């Protein structure tokens, strides 16, 4: 619907819309194309119907027959073939042919450039770089039209502005991270628009200005192509995916255009197999310090005295406790005695601990305990 309204606002909007439709064709978005074209045509037909119903002759002349008979104006590369002399001769034939070749040349240029851009950069019609394709298509109007008007520069400027300011972060470091094309085109367009319709200059001057116009617009097309090449590899793989199956309900499912499928940031994480909890080693109640279970895990038993089991028995006991607690195979370690079988029930962890005295009832004062 918005495409039809844009086409009703000005006829030059047909060229960027043609590039968008070509992107839908080469990317295989047939369902989106079948909705884009009929809706655009229907909106345009509804808007044009009153003009053709009430003034058909003038409407046909304005939209159909006038373009082919209009003379070649200024700021056009077709000024090379312009001729205003008497009828007859090769120059008159070339002038009549050039008057009818500008629109087909624009259409052919846009179709070929869109196809090459898709083949070279895998540009999706839903990606940011699609704005670059529309901008190059809009530049074909002032570059190849036989009659230019100042508002022809508006579409390329707006499309360049949108593309550059939305893709500066995914370009490589350098000049392409700045909006050089937008402001450069604004300066060039403001300069060239001063010469449109100027009749006081000679024929050679008009040819020179036309060639300058063609060269300037072509240089911006080449600059856009170079900026497309300056995209980061990761950004190119991710941003040019086709999100039609997710974000666009009218487009339907579509295969990714890149040969190597990029990793989607919303891909589900594969489930991780649950890990069974590891039970603590079983330690008999009467096991000495440093007791080792059959699987080699050092067990831990509650102390039997205020400073450990070995300290309560003096130096010999302490030494023995230290020997039992040393790592097997280390210097000074005593041989490990034969171990009893591991019981098949949990030990009583409270065995060996000093029982806690019962708490006094509330409201009664108790003297502090002495150590």
Uncertain segments: 242-255, 257-265, 299-303, 305-326
* Strand segment count: 0
CA radius of gyration is 42 Å
Helix count, per DSSP? 12
Estimated structural class? mainly alpha
Estimated helix fraction: 40-55%
The sequence of SSEs as H and E is HHHHHHHHHHHH
- Main beta sheet: strand number and arrangement? none
Strand content: under 5%
The residue-averaged pLDDT reads 75
Q: So what's the overall shape?
A: elongated
End-to-end distance: 91 Å
Can you summarize this structure?
With 371 residues, this protein is mostly helical.
Chain-wise SSE layout:
Layout: H1 2-9, H2 14-26, H3 30-54, H4 56-69, H5 90-121, H6 130-144, H7 154-167, H8 180-192, H9 203-229, H10 233-239, H11 244-247, H12 314-325
Helix pairs in contact: 1-3, 2-5, 2-6, 3-4, 5-6, 6-7, 6-9, 7-8, 8-9
Task: Please provide a written account of the structure.
The chain is 50% helix and 0% strand. It is mainly α and 371 residues long. Helix 2 packs across helix 5. The radius of gyration is 42 Å and the shape is elongated. The relative contact order is 0.09. About 13% of the residues have low confidence.
């Amino acid at each position: 619907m918005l495409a039809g309204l844009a086409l009703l606002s000005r006829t030059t909007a047909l060229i960027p819309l043609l590039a968008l439709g070509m992107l839908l064709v080469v990317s295989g978005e047939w369902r989106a194309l079948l909705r884009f074209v009929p809706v655009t045509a229907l909106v345009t037909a509804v808007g044009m119907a009153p003009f053709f119903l009430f003034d058909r002759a003038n409407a046909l002349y304005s939209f159909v027959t006038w373009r082919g008979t209009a003379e070649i104006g200024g700021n056009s590369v077709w000024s090379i073939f312009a001729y205003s002399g008497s009828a007859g001769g090769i120059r008159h034939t070339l002038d009549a042919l050039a008057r009818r070749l500008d629109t087909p040349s624009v259409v052919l240029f846009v179709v070929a450039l869109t196809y090459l851009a898709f083949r070279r950069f895998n540009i999706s019609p839903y990606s940011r770089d699609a704005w670059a394709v529309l901008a190059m298509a809009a530049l074909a109007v002032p570059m190849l039209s036989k009659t230019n008007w100042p508002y022809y520069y508006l579409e390329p400027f707006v499309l360049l502005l949108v593309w550059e300011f939305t893709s500066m972060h995914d370009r490589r470091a350098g000049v392409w991270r700045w909006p050089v094309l937008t402001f450069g085109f604004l300066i060039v367009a403001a300069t060239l628009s001063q010469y449109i319709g100027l009749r006081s200059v000679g024929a050679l001057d008009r040819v020179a200005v036309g060639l300058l116009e063609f060269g300037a617009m072509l240089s911006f097309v080449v600059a856009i192509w170079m900026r497309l090449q300056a995209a980061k590899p990761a950004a190119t793989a991710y941003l040019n995916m086709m999100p039609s199956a997710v974000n666009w309900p009218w487009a339907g499912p579509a295969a990714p255009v890149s040969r190597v499928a990029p990793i989607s940031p919303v891909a589900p994480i594969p489930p991780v197999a649950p890990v069974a909890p590891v039970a603590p080693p079983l330690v008999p109640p009467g096991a000495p310090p440093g007791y080792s279970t059959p699987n080699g895990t050092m067990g831990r038993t509650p102390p039997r005295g205020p400073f450990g089991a070995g300290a309560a028995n003096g130096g010999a006991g302490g030494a023995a406790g230290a020997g039992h607690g040393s790592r097997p195979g280390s210097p000074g370690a005593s041989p490990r005695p034969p171990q009893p079988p591991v019981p098949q029930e949990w030990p009583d962890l409270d065995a060996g601990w000093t029982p806690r005295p019962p708490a006094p009832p509330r409201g009664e004062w108790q003297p502090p305990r002495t150590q």
